Amino acid sequence: MLASPDEIAEIQKIRLKSSEKSKMTRDHNGFRKLLIVLTRAGKLFALHTGDGQVVWSRLLHSLRKSEGCDYPNGLNIYQWQIPHHHALDENPSVLVVGRCGCSLDAPGVLSIVDAYTGKELNRLGAVHSVVQVIPLPFTDSTEQRLHLLIDADQHAHLYPRTHEALGIFQREFANIYWYSVEADNGIIRGHVLKDNCILEVADEYCFSTRDLWSIVLPSESEKIVATVTRKSNEVVHTQAKVMAEHDVMYKYVSKNLLFVATVAPKAIGGIGLVTPEESWLIVYLIDTVTGRILHRMTHHGSQGPVHAVFSENWVVYHHFNLKAHRYEMSVIEIYDQSRADNKDVWKLVLGKHNLTSPISSYSRPEVVTKSQSYYFTHTVKNIAVTSTAKGITSKQLLIGTIGDQVLALDKRFLDPRRTVNPTQAEKEEGIIPLTDSLPIIPQSYVTHALKVEGLRGIVTVPAKLESTTLVFTYGVDLFFTRLAPSRTYDSLTEDFSYALLLITIVVLLVAIFVTWILSERKELQEKWR
Asked: Can you give the residue ranges of the ER membrane protein complex subunit 1 C-terminal domain (predicted)?
C-alpha cells in the first residue's frame, strides 16, 4: 500500500527529528551549533546549523518603538557570556547593541539575551550613544566578558557595571589601546584611557580618553576606502615558516596591525570614470598602538572598490587595474627580521637566542615584506578566510562574487614567492608555478549551483575538528556549510563502511589463526621425519 503525500511528509518530519544533524545537543565534532542572527529591524533569530530550522525568534523589547526610542535599529551582537565552569547551571548569552536613530549621537540600547532560550535577561534603554564597541580579552568570575563602549563624546563606558569587572579593568587600565578611523576626513587616531569622566552625575564606570597618535592623510590625494584588521580570536599555529632551502622566516604576528587602503579622490566613482594617470591605490600597514607605518605601497593606475582580508601575517585585497582593464588580487606578507639570527642551532643550544625575549609594540620592529599581484576575473563583494581550532590546516580564501556565490581559493595561489620556474626544493614545499591570473575552478564553488541573493557577508567559525571550518553566508538568503580545506584528515567520512572494517578484521584474525595451525602442523610433521 502506497503512502499518501501527507503521510510521506509526516514520515520525512519523523526522519528529520531522529536525524543526528537536527538534535538539540552538542556533538563531539562541534558541528551542531546555534546561529544567532540579528536583523536591522531588531529581531533576533536562533538557527540550527543542522537543518536551518528556527529554534526561537524574539523581537526585543529594547528595540521596539517607544516614547523614548522613535526609530530603533539593531547594530550588532557580541559574545557576552560563555560558561565553561558553570555550563550545567548557566546558558551562553549574547550582547545586542542597538541605537535609537540613525545619527551617531543617538542614544544606544543594550540587551542581554540567553542564546539557548531567547529570553531577554537584562536590558538598558536610552543609554549613552554608541559609536564603537570593543570586546576586551578579560572575563569576571561568572565568565562574563568585559566590553568597552565608546560614545560620541569619546567617553569609554565599561560593561558589565559591577565592582568585580571594575577591579579587573583597573588592573589592565594602562594596557588598553584602540583606534578609530574617520574615512571622510582621512584621519586615523589611536586612543588610550585617561581617568574617570567628569560629569554632573558621578559614574565610576565612565572614563575619559585621550589621543595617543594620529595620522592625517592628504585629502587632495588620498581617500580612505577600506580598513581591515585580524580577528581577535584567530589562532596561529606557529610563527616560524620553513622555506625551500631549509631556511626559516618568522611571521610578524600582531593583533595590533591595521590594513588601510586609500585611492585618489577622483577615483572614488565608478570604474572607467578616470584615466590611469589620474588614479592610484595606496595601501598601508599600521601599528595601532604606536601609529607607526610599517609598510606603504602604491599601485599606480588602480582604483577601488577595495575588499580585503587580514589573517596571520598576510593581507589579501582586491582592486581594479585601469591599465590592464582587469581586476587584480594582491597579497602582502610581513616577516619579523629581528629574529633572523635564531637560525643558528648553536645559539639555541647555548641559550644566546632571543626567542623568549619580550616583544613590545614600542620597540622598533625590523620587518621585511613580500608582495605579488595576480589578475582575477570576478567582481568581488566580500572576502573572508577559513579559520580552524588550532590554525594547523591550510587556509582558503572565501570570495563572495558579483553573482552571489562563494568561491573557495587556496591561499597557495596567492603566495608572493611563486616563480615561473620553481626549483625542486620549492616544488617540494608546495609552491605553485607562477601564472599571471588566478584559476577559477568550477568545483571550488562552496555554494555549488545555489545563489545567496544580496550577499553581504561571510562568517567563518572553527569546529572542534581541526580539519573543518563552518561557513555562514548572509544576505537576503542565508547559507551554511562545512569546509575542509585540507580534507578531513582527522576523521572518517560519513559513508565509511564500518561493517566492512569489522569483516576485514575478523577475516584477518581467522587467517592468522589458520596460518598458525598449519604452521604448527607442518613443524610437527618435520620433527617426525
From this structure: 311-528
